[in-house]
């Protein structure tokens, strides 16, 4: 496989992550407008919102089975347009049944898209022989910032949802389809020499359990910030309504910064050290938020959270993919990523209600200590990440693995 093809594949996949960041941000940041457009009651809204991650989990499980027969790049090539078209349908639909179906399709397609994107990312990292996974997730963060900014313009301009969504989909959909021509299904190592994708059955859940827990805890922390940072700053720390919107923006910028620089840290110090440092930083951020005497300290805490949490998810995918590859070849890696991806949605579903229940029953300061403790647990699992990222496996893995593609050509 030529260097040019690998570079194009990497750029195309990074663009896919960016597009997904834009699409997801446009959906979640315009939820009040969606609710108003379709007359969704406050009592019914949680069911609509919970359905998306639940169906995304289903989509991820289905993708695990589908990629036993077809390449992940093919799944991604078709899932991304479906996500964008479902988003557009949410914006231009005419009734509650239509928006419910659009959100259901969006959820299923997002699960397939998230799983297949990360399968390709893990596979490309293996072929490159060094950490590049954080860079893909940095592209997602950049897309999220762009999508949230576009949503802000639409909300403040009073634009209808369709007016906000149609130009974005009109630009991104053809670009995503063109970019999909360069996706690369890359593998490396002994499984390539046997000529098979493997059956993926060697990946036991017990082996993946530490990574599943880390993924869940990371997304509990992330959903806590996305759902509660504004309310916490305004209701607990006494900020203005305008200032209360700042922490999440700062969090997203720090996430982008941390992921942009994170691959360098993994190559220099190894994935285990980066995960350990990220967990400690995130826990310190939650502790600072919980004990903040004022607005400035609270914002500093959310800043630390962005830098700490941002490294956990990409490295968890990379580590699970490596273990899966060792157990079951390329199919084992894909299966591990798909199973792990389900816990992305588990954390997202659990995080926000957990903080809300504890906050109402006790205090929101106390509620912030719960994700702090869960993130700290990640420190104990950091050892599971050894051999991932660095100079791909701290040197020993690359030494025993030839870089080849699924087409059998040497990189």
Automatic annotation (TrEMBL):
It comes from the Bacteria. This is MFS transporter. It comes from Streptomyces fungicidicus.
């Amino acid at each position: 496989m030529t260097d040019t093809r690998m570079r194009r594949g990497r750029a195309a996949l990074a663009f896919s992550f960016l597009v997904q960041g834009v699409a997801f941000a446009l959906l979640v940041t315009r939820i009040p407008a969606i609710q108003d457009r379709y007359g969704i009651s406050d009592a019914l809204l949680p069911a609509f919102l919970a359905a998306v991650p639940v169906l995304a989990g289903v989509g991820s499980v289905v993708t695990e089975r589908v990629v036993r027969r077809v390449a992940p790049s093919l799944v991604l090539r078709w899932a991304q347009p479906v996500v964008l078209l479902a988003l557009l349908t949410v914006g231009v639909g005419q009734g509650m049944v239509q928006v419910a179906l659009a959100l259901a399709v969006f959820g299923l397609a997002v699960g397939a898209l998230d799983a297949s994107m990360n399968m390709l990312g893990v596979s490309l990292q293996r072929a490159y022989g060094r950490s590049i996974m954080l860079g893909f997730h940095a592209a997602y963060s950049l897309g999220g910032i762009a999508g949230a900014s576009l949503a802000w313009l639409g909300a403040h301009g009073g634009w209808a949802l369709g007016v906000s969504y149609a130009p974005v989909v009109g630009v991104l959909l053809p670009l995503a389809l063109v970019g999909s021509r360069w996706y690369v299904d890359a593998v490396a190592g002994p499984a390539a020499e046997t000529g098979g994708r493997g059956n993926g059955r060697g990946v036991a859940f017990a082996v993946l359990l530490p990574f599943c827990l880390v993924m869940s805890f990371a997304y509990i922390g992330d959903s806590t910030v996305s759902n509660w940072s504004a309310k916490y700053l305004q209701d607990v720390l006494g900020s203005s309504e305008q200032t209360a919107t700042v922490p999440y923006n700062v969090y997203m910028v720090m996430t982008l910064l941390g992921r942009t620089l994170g691959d360098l840290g993994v190559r220099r110090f190894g994935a285990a050290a980066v995960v350990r440092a990220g967990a400690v930083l995130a826990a310190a951020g939650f502790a600072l938020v919980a004990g903040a005497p004022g607005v400035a300290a609270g914002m500093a805490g959310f800043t630390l959270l962005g830098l700490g949490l941002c490294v956990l998810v990409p490295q968890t995918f990379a580590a699970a993919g490596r273990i899966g590859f060792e157990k079951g070849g390329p199919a084992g890696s894909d299966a591990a990523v798909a199973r792990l991806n389900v816990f992305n949605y588990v954390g997202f579903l659990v995080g926000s209600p957990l903080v809300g229940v504890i906050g109402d029953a006790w205090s929101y300061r106390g509620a912030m200590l719960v994700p702090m403790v869960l993130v700290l647990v990640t420190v104990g699992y950091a050892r599971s990440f050894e051999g991932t990222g660095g100079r791909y496996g701290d040197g020993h893995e690359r030494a025993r693995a030839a870089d080849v593609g699924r087409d059998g050509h040497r990189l």
